[in-house]
Amino acid sequence: MEKLIQPEHRYLHMMTRMERLLEKRNRYMEQNKVEHVLMEKELQRLEKQLSHLEQEIVSSLSS
Q1: Gap between the Cα atoms of 43 and 7, Å rounded
Q2: d(Cα 50, Cα 60) in Å, to the nearest integer?
Q3: C-alpha distances out from residue 54 to 36, 44, 46, 48, Å
Q4: What stretch or stretches form a coiled coil here (predicted)?
């Protein structure tokens, strides 16, 4: 009796799954890169604001 699923079919199926998974992983990596850059920009903006606030506080205390 012939096997229901031939090794070649299983191989092709696994390769397809692997390719899809790799594509999905790459999409998430790209998305994470974008998110990382956005977070970095936000952090820089907040650091700048904090610096300005610190200067304001120091100047208000010294007056």
Answers
A1: 52
A2: 15
A3: 26, 15, 12, 10
A4: 29-63
**Amino acid letter, residue 18:** M
Q: Does residue 27 sit in helix, strand or coil?
A: helix
The answer to whether the pTM exceeds 0.90 is: no
Q: What whole-number distance in Å separates Cα of residue 18 and Cα of residue 12? A: 10
Compute, in degrees rounded to 10, the torsion defined by CA atoms 8, 10, 16, 21.
Answer: -140
Rounded-to-integer distance, Cα 37 and Cα 31, Å: 10
The pLDDT tens digits of the residues spanning 4-51 come to: 678 888 899 999 999 999 999 999 999 999 999 999 999 999 999 999
User: For 53, what's the count of Cα atoms within 13 Å in the CB-facing half-sphere?
Assistant: 6
Q: Look-up: residue for tokens 């610190």?
A: 54
